[in-house]
Amino acid sequence: MASQVIREWMGIQQFPPATQTKLLELLGKLKQENVNTLTILVMGKGGVGKSSTVNSIIGEKVVPVSTFQSEGPRPMMVSRTRAGFTLNIIDTPGLIEGGYVNDQALELIKRFLLNKTIDVLLYVDRLDAYRVDNLDKQVVKAITDTFGKEIWNRALVVLTHAQLSPPDGLNYDVFFSKRSEALLKVVCLGARLKKHDMQGSTIPVALVENSGRCNKNESDEKVLPNGTAWIPNLVKTITEVVFNGSKAVYVDKKLIEGPNPDEKGKIFIPFILALQYLLVVKPMVRAIKSDIAKESRPAWELRDTNVAGRKF
């Protein structure tokens, strides 16, 4: 396999000066805490804006995006370096095919991630998808079954298509809150998360608008309807996930293949053998000895015993 090409992060220069300043401050904060490499895994259903979000973060069109074509069939890692800091973002194909989890796509992702460390998971969906359903739960369960519940301690929910007018005259922030609440509830159900499973209070949610119609502020930064400059806000939330006290997820062979069925239960073998001896073998030996002691001896054996006992 060819080594990953790591290029200078030139795309950061395409951002407005205000955005560049904020991003460099955040990268400096990571380096101060000895975080020199950050690997971000992007997952979710198809058509939700995963690849476009990768392009937006990098500031370059590094992943092909087409309205009329399906997503790339394989995972792809984009690496950029800046002032001694390396950013890796892994784009992945959608996990749903024909109404079910695409096991083939999931297997490709697992193999691609072998021997890599996941620092942050971006779980991507759309803000304008007003409902959640069983497909959301299936995707979350598939991710959990693959990487374990711990991956959600390193997760950030990203909602794309955020440049919208909420339905029914709802306030933008109220609509965002309700949509986030509904999706996070499905995440907790699909991942079977309890309060003690999460080191933080909840999984953070960030808004994204990748289209060119995104509004801008006086500093020429792309902003959401609520005035938030979303690119620095997204990166800021990513750094908060990194510093939340949880551990990054290392993808080794055991994690992607699961426990070896030949090894399962071996630890119990000595206990089983001990129980068999105490409950089966030992009582059986005791019963045999008791039967032998109670058994009446034949006349010829008694006669030979008497003869042997006589003194001549």
Description:
The protein has a seven-stranded mixed β-sheet, covered by helices on one side. It is built from nine helices and 13 strands. Helix content is 40%, strand content 18%. It is of the alpha/beta class. The mean pLDDT is 85. 30% of the residues are buried. It is elongated, with a radius of gyration of 31 Å. Helix 1 runs parallel beside helix 6 and helix 4 crosses helix 5.
Strand line-up in the sheet with most strands: 1-3-4-2-8-9-10
Number of helices: 9
> What integer value in Å does the Rg equal?
31 Å
Helix content: 25-40%
Unreliable segments (pLDDT under 50, ≥5 consecutive)? none
Average pLDDT metric: 85
Structural class: alpha/beta
Inertia-based shape: elongated
Q: What's a concise summary of this model?
A:
By secondary structure, the chain is α/β, with parallel strands linked by helices.
